[in-house]
Amino acid sequence: MKLAVLQLRSNWYIPLIIFIAVGFVFTIASCGENGSNAEFDPESSLIAEIEISSVAFEDGGNVPIEYTCDGENISPPLRWSEVPIGTRSIAIIVDDPYSAGHIFRHWSVFNIPSVTRSLDANQATTPDLKNSTRQALNDFGDTGYSGPCPPEGQEHEYVFFIYALSEPLEIEGNATPLDVSAALRGKVAGTGSFSGIYVRR
Fold first, then answer.
1. 36 exposure class (CB count in 10 Å sphere: 0-12, 13-18, 19+)
2. Maximum alpha-carbon separation in the chain
3. Does the pLDDT value for residue 4 go beyond 70?
4. pLDDT of 71 above 80
5. What's the average model confidence in pLDDT over 180-194?
6. Of 29, 24, 52, 109, which is closest to residue 75 (Cα–Cα)?
7. Which domain holds residue 35?
8. Rounded CA gap, 186 and 201, in Å?
9. Which of 50-59, 70-79, 98-107, 132-141 is least confident?
10. CATH number of 9's domain
11. SS3 for 177?
12. Range name among 21-25, 125-129, 132-136, 192-196 with the lowest pLDDT average
């Protein structure tokens, strides 16, 4: 599984990955300065790689219509590998980096328990799911997942990112995509991604 940066057809996400990674390193370092007995270890601060996939479609393959706005518009099933030791929660976001004008967020689901290794298809479109899991608004203005819906005739890539976090995200109310992205800073211990393609005929 390639990291998120390597799977995109452009380098738009490089600054964000660096931003999050550097924040995580500085967070660990500052913990040591605030009285922790553990010394800062650069090896342990490296961002781990997590494999994430779906049984519904292959990495880089076509997203089936049922997971898009032309079908049932339900979230696809997801599964992932082990997360780093010390992970306290997991977040998954789905972005369309090729939307006109800005990166378009299709899904933000966070505070997934660290022992979880999969999400079933058709997650409810409510702020609160089971076992402390929460969902934010997407860029359609809806809560939870809204599937691929590019302009007719345009092929877009939809990237599913997973983040293993050192702590849950403390976000109140109807969290926006920007709220979730900002809350990730300094908490990422591991990450991975895969993507799907969709074009409306």
1. exposed
2. 60
3. no
4. yes
5. 96
6. 109
7. 4-199
8. 41
9. 98-107
10. 3.90.280.10
11. helix
12. 21-25
Mean pLDDT for all residues in the chain: 83
Find out whether 145 and 113 touch, Cβ atoms under 8 Å: no
CB atoms within 10 A of CB 59: 16
- Token output for 178: 């920007």
Q: Cα–Cα distance between 7 and 118 in angstroms, integer?
A: 21
Number of domains in the chain: 1
Task: Please classify residue 99 by burial: count the beta carbons closer than 10 Å to its beta carbon, then call 0-12 exposed, 13-18 middle and 19+ buried.
Answer: middle
Confidence tier at 136 by pLDDT (50, 70, 90) = very high
Residue 28 confidence (pLDDT):
36
Task: Write the DSSP assignment of 55-122 as a string of letters.
Answer: SSS-TTEEPPGGGSTTTT-PPPPEEE----TT--EEEEEEEETTSSSS-EEEEEEEEEETT--EE-SS
- What does the alpha-carbon distance between residue 14 and residue 96 come to, in Å, rounded to a whole number? 15
Evaluate whether 183 touches 80 at the Cβ level (below 8 Å): no
For residue 75, give the nearest of 120, 108, 132 by alpha carbon. Answer: 120
Beta pairing, strands 104-113 & 118-119:
unpaired
Interatomic CA distance for residues 103 and 199, integer angstroms: 17
Contacts of 20 (CB under 8 A, 6+ apart): 184, 185, 186, 188, 191
Residue 83 in tokens: 């997360």
